[in-house]
Amino acid sequence: MNEFKEIEYSTETLKKIIESLLFSSDSPLSTKQLQAIFPELERPAKSAIETAIQQLSLDYQASSLELHQVASGWRFQVQSEMSLWVARLFAKKPPKYSRALLETLAIIAYQQPVTRGDIEDIRGVSVSSHMIQTLLEREWIKSVGHKEVPGRPALYSTTKVFLDYFNLSSIEDMPPLQELQNLAIEGELEI
Amino acid sequence: MQVTESIEEVRTSVRVAGEPYLDLPKDLYIPPEALEVFLEAFEGPLDLLLYLIKKQNLDILNIPILKVTQQYMAYIELMSQLKLELAAEYLLMAAVLAEIKSRLLLPRQISLEEGEEEDPRAELMRRLQEYAQMKKAAEALDELPRLERNIFSPSVDVADMELQKAEAEVTLPELVSALQRVLKRAEQISHHVITKEPLSVRDRMSDIMAKLKPLEMARFESFFHLKEGRAGVVVTFLAILELSKAELLDILQEAPFSALSICSRENLGAV
Q1: How large is the ipTM?
Q2: pLDDT by residue (tens digit) across A126-148?
Q3: Mutating which of B63, B125, B133, B161 best tests the A interface, going by the most A Cβ atoms within 10 A?
Q4: Do the chains contact at A122 and B122, CB–CB below 8 Å?
Q5: How high is the pLDDT of residue B269?
Q6: Average pLDDT over every residue of A110-138
Q7: Is A173 a residue whose pLDDT tops 70?
Q8: Cβ neighbourhood burial of A44 (10 Å; 0-12, 13-18, 19+)
Q9: Looking at chain B, which residue has its C-alpha nearest residue A69?
């Protein structure tokens, strides 16, 4: 390695490179992905990339954009105060999801990994294959294995794409569940 | 509805949280026309039960089974009147409710053993709570800012940019087999080089003619240089044959199986 001259990028240059990459990419890019774009011999240290991201983020504070970290990496997004205006630009209404789909998704997110049977137990109705298919196609859930019970049903978990979509950087950022009230039944109602 | 008939009998004995409960709530009745609209919107029997409980401001942990069962049955009745596809889950829940109610009506067994008798409603309440929790969670999930609705990720159009073709990943075995292919090809090419360049038949013909001295016979073997290998031998042999064909030299043999000699025909003619 010593025989090659290593190229060092200045933070200013790194900032510009990262900025271009994030704007050109369709999906968020992680520090690791950003690092991997550089040729091996010129690859900056992870800390150098992180510093550049930090400074870039500061640069954008005065603008209408912000650098935001979600589960699968960094992405630029319109600051929330401005999103209303952007929403007006798009004539098409944002997709609305059925309660059935949201409930199923919530059960998978909070209780993962779960089988279809687990979801059905909680919801009290059968879960349509179509709905699972929709969630799989959107890449919000994935099958992570099979439960070792008769029939070996698939176990589902949520994905990074799901977290990205809901602007979360990890599953811990999900809104906390309401406390289950104490199951003890104190009432004396008699019929 | 058979259920309503029993109301009169039980109303005097109804107690809520220890207090006698004499009046039936006023807001229980919901006109069927209004129901029709959202009947289809229920996400199953648990959802319907939750709705009924909420509607009556009842405690989820202290469900008056009779009241809820009556209401529930009224909905089921209505659903079948409206010929809505009645999912089996709804009927199952009706059976569960009826079972709980009948168990509550039976006199409680006085058990001498330790431990409290489990409330027949416990399992249903647990399920209702769990469902209510997830229903809330789904609502919270829906409230989260999300892409396409609250979050917009700007990007620049790079479609027209001359993008560098992605360099394919190369594995070591691929590299080795590529090298082997190149070597094989080089081998084939180098064969051509040997036969063409240093060993030309025409050059060899000139060499032989120059070497042949007038009036002298030369031994056939003396023209072959073993250093040149098989190719060299072939070239020399071809050269001699060519010269012979062109009648520039003769190949002579004095006796059968004796050594061959070569002599220039020009010289012979001159003698």
Answers
A1: 0.73
A2: 888 999 999 999 999 999 999 88
A3: B133
A4: no
A5: 47
A6: 91
A7: yes
A8: buried
A9: B153
Residue A6 has pLDDT above 80, yes or no: no
Could you list the beta-strand ranges (E) of chain B: 15-16, 19-20, 218-219, 249-253, 260-264
Q: What is the CA radius of gyration of chain A?
A: 23
Domains, in order of start, for chain A: 11-89 (1.10.10.10), 99-173 (1.10.10.10)
* pTM for the model: 0.58
Confidence check: pLDDT of B38 > 60: no
Residue of B nearest to A101 (CA): B138
User: Residue B106 in contact with residue B112, Cβ under 8 Å?
Assistant: no
User: In a mutagenesis test of the A interface, which of B66, B131, B150, B158 is the best target, namely the one with the most A β-carbons within 10 Å?
Assistant: B150
Q: Which residues of B117-147 are buried (b: 16+ CB within 10 A; e: fewer)?
A: eebbbeebbebbbbbbbbbebbebbbebebb
Instruction: Give B224-243 pLDDT, tens digit per residue.
Output: 887 878 888 888 888 888 88
Sorted by where each starts, the structural domains of chain B and their CATH numbers stand as 2-105+120-140 (no CATH), 188-270 (1.10.10.580)
Shortest Cα–Cα distance, B131 to chain A (Å): 6
Q: Which among B259, B43, B118 has a CA at the least distance from the CA of A106?
A: B43
**What three-state secondary structure class fits A76?**
strand
Residue B163 or B182, more confident: B182
Does the pLDDT of residue A78 top 50, yes or no?
yes
**Cβ–Cβ of B104/A191 closer than 8 Å?**
yes
Q: Helix or strand or coil: residue B41?
A: coil
